[in-house]
């Protein structure tokens, strides 16, 4: 079964009364199989974040024939988000670039928030979590390597630790699909590696489907067998990450290919393929 199935998805943002609308997504067709780990790449403004937010049912697409299915259930149809969206979102763990933690609360409480959707109303209102959920929280924090941080305020964690707490929250949520929107964009290289290792662990050890948007092509090649590349709201490449040669990147993005390659990444890819990215 497909974890994600998208047909003819388009999104136009209004340009105001005197300006034409901007096409953020343009006739996107995409399928992601259950258990895949897929990278979503593209320069700034290519539509990566917009696409992920549509998959999660946060925003509706243009009112035209289209569909988004999550784990076999429609979440959007013809530009309308379905009534059952909250129930479907229980299976979606969304990891934001800026962590989306409540800084004044403890790490444990932030992670336990992932369990709220399956708890009765009185527990949600009082924050009285059952022992089984607290045990699951401890196990999740330990698995992502910050079990000793449970009692600390989220604000006291480093950026990488906060992102790992967000991944632990997805485990407690018992999500089946992880959507990660540039989760390493604001992290140092070592923290980035740890977060990507955690995403790979969720995919490999827990069988979760992972779609992660990235700016760095070398990271996509290292962690994700498949890459989907967007440009101007369209899918311009969907295939093996290993095939993303410098020549192909130039063909897809022209001079904008430089944005997708950090200096170290450019060296790693050119070493791999015996070619040099033209930065002229």
Automatic annotation (TrEMBL):
CDD domains assigned to the protein according to its UniProt record, in alphabetical order: ABC_PhnC_transporter (cd03256)
The protein, known as: Phosphonate transport system ATP-binding protein
SMART domains attached to this UniProt entry: AAA
Keyword annotations of the record: ATP-binding, Cell inner membrane, Cell membrane, Membrane, Nucleotide-binding, Translocase, Transport
Membrane spanning stretches: none
Keyword Manganese included in the entry's annotation: no
Superkingdom of this protein's organism: Bacteria
UniProt-listed Pfam families: ABC_tran
GO cellular component: membrane
Signal peptide (UniProt feature, chain positions): none
Keyword Translocase carried by entry: yes
GO molecular function: ABC-type phosphonate transporter activity; ATP binding; ATP hydrolysis activity
Annotated organism of origin: Paraburkholderia bannensis
Domain ABC transporter: 4-257
